[in-house]
Design brief:
The structure is a homotetramer. The first copy, chain A, is α/β, with parallel strands linked by helices and about 325 residues long. In chain A, the strands form 3 sheets. An 8-stranded parallel β-sheet of chain A has the order 13-12-11-10-9-8-7-14. A 4-stranded antiparallel β-sheet of chain A has the order 2-3-1-4. Chain A has a two-stranded antiparallel sheet with strand order 5-6. Helices cover about 35% and strands about 15% of the residues of chain A. The first copy, chain A, folds into 2 domains: about 60 residues, Phospho-2-dehydro-3-deoxyheptonate aldolase, domain 1 (Alpha-Beta Plaits), CATH 3.30.70.1140; about 250 residues, Aldolase class I (TIM Barrel, Alpha-Beta Barrel), CATH 3.20.20.70. Chain A starts with a strand and ends with a helix. The radius of gyration of chain A is 23 Å and the shape is elongated. Chains in contact: A-B, A-C, A-D, B-C, B-D, C-D.
Chain lengths: ~325, ~325, ~325, ~325
């Protein structure tokens, strides 16, 4: 932490601040600059709360230097965390693809899609049984029945399943059926849910919140890891911006920025970022080229009849072509 | 819903679309325009999902006309909803002020602050017992003990208390002690929590999410009302923008925009919007002048020692002056 | 400038960086911290470009400490700059109001409005003769004829006039007629125009760009001051955010943040921020309460027939009431 | 344009609005819906200004249907516009690459870089002679001398040159030397400059403004085309968002969204979007995979000594590898 003093701050003011810092148990080290004095805060374990010093007399600005995260940090653990589920590995340079419908709607639907995406080369099946929806009047998912259908699809295809846990109440149930548990963007800072996920033996996909800063996202992962679950896969799914031509704006650079700070794998969901089928395809290619640790993509056998997210779901044949091209692109970039 | 066709869309394409619309049980009404045909979707009760038609052949754009909310809508209920708690009324043109620390820290602290804010004219006491914090290593609140201290402060001052419920697990407990239950910005789309709040006999303050659109915020309130709780107070607390000179950007116009769409009262929290004491004061005056239904503001007896949000908490004497000026401003604007 | 090294950076890496810094003529001062070394860059006059060191070996982050602006800085000049035009003073704690139509449309229009706003207590008349419009097909202003009509209105009412200069080509002409020259939001970083304005004897209103950071805005003012013109009035007019219920989001806190950094006066334009009449009125009250150095507001005698910005222009009678209330609010807050 | 009336608007109110619409020369067509009446505005050539009707009695909302752009619109011209410069073609499905330094700094520098990027397969050379800089104290470019050095590099390598025109004053000079004239992001709505570019015989690269909506960007291109210059290449370069881990956020989906609306080619500049070398490389691959009409990328022979943008410039050897991989990726996606 660096406390920058106002130009011309008196010696007493500086002394008072040094005391305030040391009263909190830190070491203060004044650093005379060209135009003003700054005070470094040393010997802190973990991060210092800028709020403590922000409003004090003579203080111009408080600049954090040490990052607040520990377990998720690459400085804490240098090598990539690799998470293996079925035949897929997230974090080892491969490109596992998770595909399936937004929501499980019926046995026919999920079995048909599961078989298609398996044939096309997907490594895992996705499908929502509990759906967080903006409107209380929208389709909320099949619940337990949806989980059972996912299990059936897993049995038939061998694909592990990824499905969302919306709350602590239904977490046990989801945990029983899911191979990977997803925490949605709207729940990224539902700390009680994060703590529960931290106690799970299952890997967790933690979606980035609509407007989460990199640091907030990593701190959410820290909540999970702090409870003992090290298997966290981060998932970028587009952020909210002023833009109106797509549902969200996919922030690809966050992937490399996170990987610099953290050892955790980062996958991308181009479907929610775009919101429209053609854009999803182009974005999927872009993701494969960017060097992400996996891709999550929505596929539906009859998008025009889907109960949710139809416009952004690929047709099975489209998905097949997309898979082939993503694979070819990944082969080029992988030689990086 | 208005489906705008591409220029030069053939008669068959239009006919196919009309069929697709009517297959879903709506009435389709083609409207020939200057340059292209649009198709109105009529006789829908509630809103139609744009996704159903977005990707279809010949469709250029799908424009929603009817809004998806019902119970929160001013068209559903014309007159303002007024919510009475203790001597305060939210929604009747008065300006009740909720004041207190970010978190309850000790008996001394909360009693001292409660007495100060009461003397200054606050109508309710705020204070967190369960704190949602970005970092798992930050102070998380005193929990049940914090609630008991709030109850003690209520007994001593007569001020009703506002405190946050973070999850369904601890909701019963919070409900037992709180006069108004707050749902925080990060939980605005924690739908399970919203449903639980909808079953509570207590009024609920629903904070706007960091980057929530007006419509998403109202739909979150709809979740609460749909379960039977009509006492929802909306609270703007600043949104996330590209700006770096303040923690958030306070969006005052959302207050009038919401009040046009909805009958619910809207209050504002200038403390979280600004993040810095001087800005909080000026913003509090601005809120009073804008014509809001109440103000929530952080006050601490020793901000420099606060366990959270010290930099944005007012000193008790500052708060007293702020209260006087807000009252005077409100008197001018109220004559609107 | 503070260069933060990666944890475990070797002594050689640190030495290499120290050399790189000193090769550019600065003094490097290594500061050992709890977990890592940082290197302070001292004895720089003016700011250092972070880009120089960002990509170098072992560098984790580069944190600017000194601000890049000089002439606009409050550290350069402590007391407020006060700018007097006619009877109005910007920057001395008073609340001068600039009112008038978006564009000058006809003699009748501008004279009628000028008389109304004068009667209501406005200190200056605004009106565009050269209009920057998003579409080449929209009304572009009356040009020279518009300037002459403004001069006529000034003669009749005694009000000084504020009007926009869109480019260097027509700057001389605008300068001849205007008492204050406005530079629009879209031209905030039109550096050639800024330099020209810097050579003008007239005060300049510099509107904030749609998504300008505080620092970029101040640097734009620095361009003007660096050419010799010290009479710069900054004008906040709303920024672009994800929000859809208002044209822009008014960023009131930027006013106090700028005034902390700079000695220049800051006024606010609630009309462009809101885009809708009712919101303009409430925002105008909020501005008066916040403690701004002036307000610019659109008034039209027949808003429904206006050639531009009709929906956000106040009726003359509305403006009169708004003026009275703003004055009363300012009287309360002024006693700050 | 669709004017949505408030629920329960009286017949007289509707009639008054119909009159207001027809008084402006349009045809009004009331459309009774399930819950409210809407009024379509027909037989307008071009777009209608929503402002005209927004504030009127009984009006709930005004929804634009027709787009305001003409010449840039794909409905006006169905086939892609292809722009040929030297051996490169923008818009025909190929992937021309424009490479070079941010600014021309010396003869050695520009010749060395020009030869490198040519060898690596770049189709055009970029380099700034007039530089728009946030600070008046930063390096502003070599001016005319810079243009002469670019001409020398063109002569030696045969590569056409792309360079920026900052203002109308120096436009003639830039036009004399440049093969393509660039208009920078900060000047996207410098309408006088756009009009001047519209009179040029040279193709123009129009960068997207920092926070420009798709429609504003196309309208800026409309300004150029309306003056007679049809050779406009649009360039996405990242937009400003709340994000802090990269300079800007690259908005890839705008490319496909623009191409749906317009026949103009769209290229992407990953260098300014990222601001950091490693991110530039990954983003360049993503652009190639997304299916853009060209890529503009910064290369410097000695990035650590560059006078501007050093941290985001690739080393020549890096660029060579990047070119090879982009070519390979494009070959895969091109088979789309």
């Amino acid at each position: 932490m660096l406390v920058v003093m106002q130009k011309g701050a008196s010696e007493e003011t500086v002394k008072a601040l040094v005391n305030a810092i040391e009263n909190r148990g830190y070491t203060a080290r004044p650093i005379p600059g060209g135009e003003r004095i700054s005070i470094g805060i040393l010997h802190n374990t973990g991060s210092v709360d800028a709020n403590h010093f922000q409003g004090l007399d003579g203080v111009k600005e408080v600049i954090p230097v040490t990052k607040p995260y520990k377990l998720v940090s690459r400085e804490f653990k240098q090598e990539n965390t690799c998470i293996r589920v079925g035949d897929a590995v997230f974090g080892n340079g491969s490109l596992p693809v998770i595909a399936g419908p937004c929501a499980v709607e019926s046995e026919d639907q999920i079995l048909s899609i599961a078989n298609s995406v398996k044939d096309a080369g997907a490594a895992l099946l996705r499908g929502g049984a509990f759906k967080p929806r903006t409107s209380p009047y929208s389709f909320q998912g099949l619940g337990k029945n949806g989980l059972e259908l996912l299990a059936k699809a897993r049995k038939e295809t061998g694909l592990p399943v990824v499905t969302e846990a919306m709350d602590v109440e239904t977490f046990d149930l989801v945990e029983e059926y899911a191979d990977i548990i997803q925490i949605g963007a709207r729940n990224m800072q539902n700390f009680s849910l994060l703590r529960r996920a931290g106690k799970s033996p299952r890997p967790v996909i933690l979606k980035r919140g609509m407007s989460a800063l990199l640091q907030e996202w990593l701190m959410a992962a820290e909540y999970i890891m702090e409870e003992g679950n090290n298997q966290v896969i981060l998932c970028e799914r587009g952020v909210r911006t002023f833009v109106r031509h797509s549902r969200n704006t996919l922030d690809l650079t966050v992937v490399s920025a996170v990987k610099k700070e953290s050892h955790l794998p980062v996958i991308v969901d181009p479907s929610h970022a775009a919101g429209v089928r053609e854009q999803v395809i182009s974005l999927a290619f872009a993701c494969a080229a960017f060097g992400v640790d996996g891709i999550m993509i929505e596929v539906h056998n009859k998008p025009e009849e889907a109960l949710s997210d139809g416009a952004q779901s690929l047709y099975p044949e489209q998905f097949k072509t997309v898979m082939e091209k993503m694979k070819a692109i990944h082969a080029i970039v992988g030689k990086n």
